[in-house]
Amino acid sequence: DIQMTQSPSSLPASLGDRVTITCRASQDIGNYLRWFQQKPGKSPRLMIYGATNLAAGVPSRFSGSRSGSDYSLTISSLESEDMADYYCLQSKESPFTFGAGTKLELK
Amino acid sequence: EVQLVESGGGLVKPGSSLKLSCVASGFTFSSYGMHWIRQAPKKGLEWIALIYYDSSNKYYADSVKGRFTISRDNSKNTLYLEMNSLRSEDTAMYYCAKDILSYWGQGVMVTVSS
């Protein structure tokens, strides 16, 4: 199975900061990488698909990138509504696998 | 507006069975693959099953393979997850999701406890 190693597990940050979350794939997954945001008590929300494509309705301060087997989600200027858990997911092959998650919190 | 509404959860004993449903609306259900994903309390997300739009292919996580069955009835716009031989570690919120996981239901809680 493909393993997704997500880091950091926790990310304290201040409003206005530029923050980056990373997932490393254990095998080649091409651009079959998605990012999700989940707020407490809510269902996950798709943020990025195809590694770099912004999902509908997602603010432009969010972006996705790829460098080899490393995939990153970047928020250019953190806003209070961005405080949430973030997960990556590989959908290259079954079983699809999520990263362990990153808790983004106010410093 | 796309809507996915799960139902069928509850408290069950270890070893028992349960069948979840997910009723879809707002899109052509028969044209899209569908997923089940779960989240144990205070834990991360776990993908558990995928079914193609025409039921021609089904895929499962190793943790549920042989115990859970995903199915769909396109005439009823409904996705199912039949869960057998339930274990305490199956306790989780279960979500159905559409296609590239662009839409999720609100989730339904399954608790397996004696």
Question: Describe it for me?
Answer:
The complex is a heterodimer of chains A (107) and B (114). By secondary structure, chain A is mainly β. Chain A has no helices and 11 strands. The N and C termini of chain A lie far apart (36 Å). The mean pLDDT of chain A is 97. Chain B is mainly beta and 114 residues long. Chain B is globular, with a radius of gyration of 13 Å. The model of chain B has no long low-confidence stretch (mean pLDDT 97). Classes of the chains: A mainly beta (107), B mainly beta (114). The A-B interface holds A 1, 34, 36, 38, 43-46, 49, 55-56, 87, 89, 91, 94-101 and B 35, 37, 44-47, 50, 59-62, 95, 100-102, 104-107.
List the topology elements.
The complex is a heterodimer of chains A (107) and B (114).
Chain A: E1 4-7, E2 10-13, E3 19-25, E4 33-38, E5 45-49, E6 53-54, E7 62-67, E8 70-75, E9 85-90, E10 97-98, E11 102-106
Parallel strand pairs in A: 2-11
Antiparallel strand pairs in A: 1-3, 3-8, 4-5, 4-9, 5-6, 7-8, 9-10, 9-11
Chain B: E1 3-7, E2 10-12, E3 18-25, E4 34-39, E5 45-51, E6 58-60, E7 68-73, E8 78-83, E9 92-98, E10 103-104, E11 108-112
Parallel strand pairs in B: 2-11
Antiparallel strand pairs in B: 1-3, 3-8, 4-5, 4-9, 5-6, 7-8, 9-10, 9-11
Highlighted features:
heterodimer, A: 107 residues, mainly beta, seven-stranded mixed β-sheet, four-stranded antiparallel β-sheet, 11 strands, B: 114 residues, 0% helix, 51% strand, globular
Order of helices and strands of chain A: EEEEEEEEEEE
- Largest interface here, residues on each chain? A-B, 22 and 19 residues
Largest sheet of chain B: 7 strands, mixed
Structural class designation of chain B: mainly beta
Structural class of chain A: mainly beta
Which strand-content bin applies to the residues of chain B?
over 45%
What is the mean pLDDT of chain B?
97
**Number of beta strands of chain B:** 11
